[in-house]
Amino acid sequence: MKNLTLAWIYLSAGLIAMGCRRDGKGAQALVGKSAQAQVAASAPAIAGEDLAGESGHGNGSLSYARVFSMEHRRDTTVLQVHKPWQGSKAEFTYLLVPAKADSSGTTGPKSHASVSASGIMVVPVPVTRAVSLTTTNLRHLEWVGALDALVGLGGGRYVCSPEIRARLKSGRIRDVGEDVRLDLESVMALKPQAVFTYVVGNSSDGGLAKLAEAGIPAIVEGSYMEETPLGRAEWIKFTAAFFGKEAGADSVFAVVDSSYRALAALARKSAHRPTVMVGAPFGGAWWMPGGHTYVARLLADAGADYPWASDTTRGSLNLDMEAVLGRSAEAEVWLNAGDWRDLADAKEKDPRNALFRAWKTGRVYTNDAVRCEGGGRDFFETGATRPDWILADLISILHPELLPGYRLRWYRRLPGPV
Asked: Which pLDDT band holds residue 119 (cuts at 50, 70, 90)?
């Protein structure tokens, strides 16, 4: 599943800020005694409570996303997805057209997506029955008020959202398995009008092949290939378009955008840029985010010096421990470390972990502070859409003087002693 298989490779974050000013005062207004209170107080406006009624077309403009494009043509919307996984040359086109109403004046499950002779997928909208095989878009559905359309979900055990977990328990949403364990019969029984999935590459096709064999058209989500955190967050507009909720998506994203930029401006106030290393060895390899990934951009915006910042790779680099030690042995901070309990556990897993300066000084952080019932991490489920909240965590770790009184949301420092 995407949020687990890529968990330690990719970074996300967040805090909500009050507007964006070039001098960083918008974010500075959140710090001090009321920093955490401001975050909590602003949450309802993003939870969909005030935005659920905002249906219809948004302005259709994209500010940051590059892996998908959107164009409105009268009553239709054209969405194109470009190279949505590492090494991919694939292009996908989705033509969103108004669903035809039946004799009662309502649209129903009979309005299914179909693929034209030219390979374009035609999707009647708004979709009222959907299955998602990725957790990346779950917050999208909640925050734009489209959750009632979700009838099936892949990897439901990892979900953190209390509302979605309740619906899984009650049967309103069915868990249809994931990846190689995808239960096609369950998917077909739900009669979805649209199925959302993702492709990682050689390691996972997100059930795409199985769906194709069964004649079920799938919508490919590729937000993790975006080169900026805001580009990834802007995929809320992609999801919302299928449910007629573009206006709500525009409203949500405007808050995230303003908040993120205010925090980035605040981080630029710091004269010191700590050297930061990311990730941990996994299966004999260390998958290091390339310089053209949203992870690298997030670190730069947080005021960090990333050893691979000048690399031009859009995906992840397959490195060995020696290569990482060569560049990061003296890194001041270690982020997104492995699934370790403490520093001793990290050393036990691989004694070479103790060779890094960050381990020796105890500045090792992992993003599992909020674990959910099935073992999932909210960092991945919510952080993809709220990179401003991740950014706040990172600024607090790297430049604590800029956010006094702030409590980490998703990160925790691995306890010692070393």
From this structure: confident
